[in-house]
Amino acid sequence: RDLTTELTVPTLSTRTATLTAKQDGILSGIELYRSVFDLVHAEVSDWQSMEDGDAFSNGETVASFNGLTRATLTGERTALNFLQHLSGIATVTARYVAAVHANPVRICDTRKTTPLLRNLEKQAVRHGGGWNHRQALYDGILIKENHIQAAGSITQAVLQAQQGSHHLLNIEVEVTNLIECQEALNTSAGVIMLDNMSLDDMKQAVELGRGHSILFEASGNVTLDTVADIAATGINIVSVGAITHSAPSADLSLTISIH
């Protein structure tokens, strides 16, 4: 129950609700925003809005609708929580994409997402111009340090993964230095993740990979200040956990006005 609204707002009151941007950004989650008001029976009419992936500017109207005042106020915070969070992810992603525009590099997300919100957050990354990494543990093989330790070596881990998977499934292996990179290049891996390696080592890794059918992914503590230099090393993919786990919410505000 929304006790405050029940006690202060007349039952049949209707209002126009306007969603306004308080910053520049990229929109994500507008269908979910609308769905909240439908679920609380706001009797939405005259709906107008931007589309997911659209850029908005500070002061611009993002969406508006007419509806029952009580239901609109009851749904307001939940609708904004989703929209601000997802638009924040799309906005930060777009900044990373813009920072590497001079190089043919994909900005990817990771599995560092909010429990139960992964699908929405990965969609927000796409709205910001980024790309999705694997969805979960079941749809891609990513051999990391602990897997290598358990298997005995990079070579053995990749071999076992290849023997247990079908021919359409790519294998990625994580390396932390150039010796490990060379070992990975001698296997059937299709992607090598360069984890927390220096710029010079990343450049050397790319050189080692010349003549191999291989993609290189950079990962580990990537920031807006470092991503352009990382992209310039010649790698193909940059995965950034921060675009989902640390994106600040976009500043969006809902106000109502008397008809």
Describe the fold and architecture.
The protein is an alpha/beta fold and 259 residues long. The protein contains 10 helices and 12 strands. The protein has helices at residues 3-8, 30-39, 69-99, 118-127, 145-151, 154-163, 178-185, 199-208, 227-231, 242-245; strands at residues 14-21, 25-26, 45-49, 55-56, 61-68, 106-108, 141-143, 171-175, 191-195, 215-219, 237-239, 252-258. It has a 6-stranded parallel β-sheet. A 4-stranded antiparallel β-sheet has the order 3-5-1-12, covered by helices on one side. Helix 2 (30-39) packs antiparallel against helix 3 and helix 7 (178-185) runs parallel beside helix 8 (199-208).
Taking all Cα atoms into account, the compactness measure Rg is: 23 Å
Mean pLDDT metric: 97
N-to-C order of helices and strands: HEEHEEEHEHEHHEHEHEHEHE
Question: How big a fraction of the residues is strand?
Answer: 15-25%
How many H/I helices?
10
User: Which stretches are low in confidence, meaning pLDDT under 50 for 5 or more residues running?
Assistant: none
**Which structural class should the secondary elements be placed in?**
alpha/beta
- Most strands sheet: 6 strands, parallel
- Give the spatial strand order of the biggest sheet: 6-11-10-9-8-7
Shape assignment: elongated
Q: Tell me the number of strands.
A: 12
Q: How much helix, percentage-wise, in residues?
A: 25-40%
Straight-line N-to-C gap: 26 Å
